[in-house]
Amino acid sequence: QQEQILLGQRGQSRVAFPIRTDDKPYSTHCDNRLDYTPMSVGVRTVTFRAVDTKNNRCVNLKKVNFVCVDNVLHAKKNILCIGDSITEKYNMPYYIQQCLSKYLSPDSVQPDFVGTSGGANDMESKVNYETRHEGRSGWNSRSFTAPVMSVFANAGKTAIDIGTYRSANNIGKIDVVNISLGMNDALIIPRSEYIPNILSLINAFKADNPDVRIVVQLPSNTALKEYQEKNIALNNLKSDILKKLSGIGNVIIGDWSCGYDRWNGFPLSTWAPKPLYGNSGQMYYHQGIYDILHPTEAGTREMAEAMAGSILFALQDEQQVFNHRAL
Q1: Cα separations (Å) of 24 from 27, 30, 236?
Q2: Are strands 42-52 and 57-68 parallel, antiparallel or unpaired?
Q3: 3-state DSSP percent of the chain in helix, strand and coil, to 5
Q4: What is the four-CA torsion angle of 205, 95, 170, 311, rounded to 10 degrees?
């Protein structure tokens, strides 16, 4: 079978997205999505071109590598998701779990999600949102690393100790940690503090399990032009993550921007592209979000699926991850 790039229901080797560059509404031009379906594990290179159709010329070109990992898991693994209100409100890990359940092969061993939040403690307190996590509204990287308040602190509140945290909460070995922080960091703590805080988390989890895989998600931009200052701060954090965390052993950089970045910079009156899963009756400024920071339940599902790929990558065996990181 030939590998295909899918645009809507049409399978083609080349696809085109009409994009306007003026200030007219975008809704009729941005509803398409690109789905790439590989036939085997490995790295595929896809070329994106920006074409000026009026003058029939290519104005820019970018080659992107797609890392295609196996969808089979042979052993039970534990995943811990760390985040803020975006993780907590609609239980982002629940949707990550649903995505993995959908795309893993039928003979795979499904991973477990661990943590002390979720279930009856979840903000929405819905039965089907009982997936466990460490998403905490209003928290930032300092909240998780300052022993005086961190859920990961030792008994004396003098240091972070993941072993103590696991023992106290009857949690087994943690195989994958997904860190989705940055929103509350951007305008609350100094930029210079974010990376040291994330490194403290990385080192603490590695001290407990040297083989742990840690996914650091690039924080998404906020939805509206009116919040441009926060977007600048978030872009700085993203730049720092890419420069200072890339290449660290067992650390994988992900991107959870699917639910937000399509609206970045649009004025309040602009109608956004249709979300992948509808709006669940929760429309506010734009489809998929209900304020300038938070996704609706449907937007949460979109963002979770954006994270699921990097988490599946982290769940793979050591040799496969090593080979793909080398590429």
Answers
A1: 9, 12, 29
A2: antiparallel
A3: 35, 20, 45
A4: -30
